[in-house]
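Q: I'm building a small set of examples for a reading group on sequence design. Run inverse folding on the following structure and report the sequence directly after it, with nothing in between.
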């Protein structure tokens, strides 16, 4: 592809002598540059790509795009205001706008993105619409599943993968980090869904206003005919509805003031197009999952899928890996593994746990090093208010020294109301040994994610730890079972 064609979306004029340069690829990592590539220099959190320009040129870069005012680097240099946005626009053109003939659905919010995406994928595929999925658990393209490394991939990888998709629809979880870092720049969405906004990621966004504005920015990528589906019964949801309306885009409001659709217990009332009540009951229990189901249902109806078909599809929905995933102890206790990692998410999952009428609820959870510390005390208090026993442990250290994290856990529990076991696998083992018939042990924070560091037991994840403990239990008690 010629440079002149590739940079048109950037709105930058270049000299005639470089317009016809043939571009064979893009990269923002100098080590991945090959001959006749454009290298996009990005100022990252830990490294500045401008420092690697000469490495990129040595590897074959024939053009460099960056933000700094540079001259005489040996190849044509294009200065832009924002390299991340430029990368998204360049990638979209280079891969020939890979989503232009697909149904594009973006989902943002603090909690519920993954569950809503899986529900919506199930509904659409039940209606014969094949779906690619980009999310925090995995990517699924043309039926092939790969484990995810980020909730929202970088713009270059997104376009590369989307160009391989033969599916009719693409459903994408869009994180606030991904939006702040322009990872979806160049994409346009037919539907954008907002689940909720809660205290989270303030280590990155600094305050709730900044966090909200990042989420709001997704809706700037709606096509002119695009539709926003917004759970609007909060100040953030109502504010977002007003913003999207100001963009002259259609808004479907779920709950809130003057709603389009209303959640009523385990039903959804479509009070404009279809003044009828439809069941959104499914195997994922709890008020929060009913809300997720309502958003998926509302989007599917807008896609002209028959409400009765959507209702029926929920009866066959198998759930989401690592979201309220149940595991039974041989003695009759039940374990639940879930990704919940905010105070409100704790409230939802522990309220749902109580629906099972357990003898006791034991909660195992921890915190991630170098992440939002403001939410930790509230999370502990919510757990204490809803559980018989709270076991504090680590999620991931993320480079924080073990002793520092232990001191942090101890300081958060000055009244010694929690059991503190820093090693996550030993904390789960403690809960396993403590469990009695009809107890419910809730393990939150990781879901199906693998551990980032080694713990005492030779296991890779919370579910793996439970399987390891179960195998050990059965082996030790084989003559008594």
């Amino acid at each position: 592809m010629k440079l002149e064609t590739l940079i048109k979306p950037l709105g930058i004029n270049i000299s005639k002598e470089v317009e016809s340069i043939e571009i064979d690829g893009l990269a923002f990592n100098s080590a991945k540059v090959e001959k006749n590539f454009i290298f996009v220099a990005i100022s990252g959190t830990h490294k500045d790509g401008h420092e690697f320009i000469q490495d990129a040129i040595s590897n074959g870069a024939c053009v460099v795009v960056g933000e700094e005012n540079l001259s005489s680097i040996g190849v044509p240099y294009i200065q832009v205001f924002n390299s991340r946005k430029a990368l998204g626009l360049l990638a979209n053109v280079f891969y020939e706008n890979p989503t232009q003939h697909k149904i594009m659905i973006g989902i943002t919010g603090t909690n519920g993105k993954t569950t809503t995406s899986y529900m919506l994928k199930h509904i659409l595929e039940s209606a014969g619409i094949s779906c690619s999925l980009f999310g925090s658990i995995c990517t699924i393209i043309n039926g092939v599943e790969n484990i995810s490394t980020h909730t929202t991939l970088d713009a270059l990888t997104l376009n590369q993968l989307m160009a391989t998709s033969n599916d009719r629809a693409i459903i994408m979880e869009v994180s606030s980090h991904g939006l702040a870092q322009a990872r979806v720049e160049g994409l346009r969405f037919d539907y954008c869904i907002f689940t909720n906004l809660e205290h989270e990621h303030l280590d990155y966004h600094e305050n709730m206003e900044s966090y909200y504005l990042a989420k709001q920015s997704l809706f700037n990528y709606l096509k002119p005919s695009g539709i926003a589906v917004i759970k609007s019964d909060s100040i953030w949801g109502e504010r977002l509805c007003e913003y999207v309306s100001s963009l002259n885009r259609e808004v479907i409001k779920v709950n809130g003031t003057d709603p389009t659709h209303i959640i009523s217990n385990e039903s959804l009332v479509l009070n404009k197009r279809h003044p009828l009540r439809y069941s959104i009951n499914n195997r994922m229990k709890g008020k929060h999952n009913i809300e997720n189901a309502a958003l998926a249902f509302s989007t599917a109806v807008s896609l002209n899928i028959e409400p009765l078909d959507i209702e029926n599809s929920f009866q066959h929905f198998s759930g989401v890996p690592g979201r309220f995933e149940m595991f039974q102890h041989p003695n009759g206790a039940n374990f639940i593994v879930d990704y919940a990692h905010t105070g409100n998410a704790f409230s939802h999952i522990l309220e749902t746990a109580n629906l099972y009428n357990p003898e006791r609820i034991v909660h195992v959870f921890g915190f991630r090093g170098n992440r939002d510390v403001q939410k930790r005390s509230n999370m502990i208090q919510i757990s204490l208010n809803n559980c018989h026993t709270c076991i504090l442990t680590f999620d991931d250290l993320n480079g924080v020294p073990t002793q520092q994290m232990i001191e942090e856990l101890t300081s958060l529990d000055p009244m010694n109301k929690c059991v503190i076991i820093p090693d996550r696998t030993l904390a789960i083992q403690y809960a396993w040994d403590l469990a009695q018939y009809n107890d419910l042990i809730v393990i939150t924070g990781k879901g199906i994610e693998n551990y980032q560091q080694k713990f005492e037991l030779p296991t890779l994840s919370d579910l793996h730890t439970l399987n390891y403990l179960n195998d050990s239990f059965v082996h030790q008690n084989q003559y008594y079972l």
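The first strand starts at residue 25 and ends at 27.
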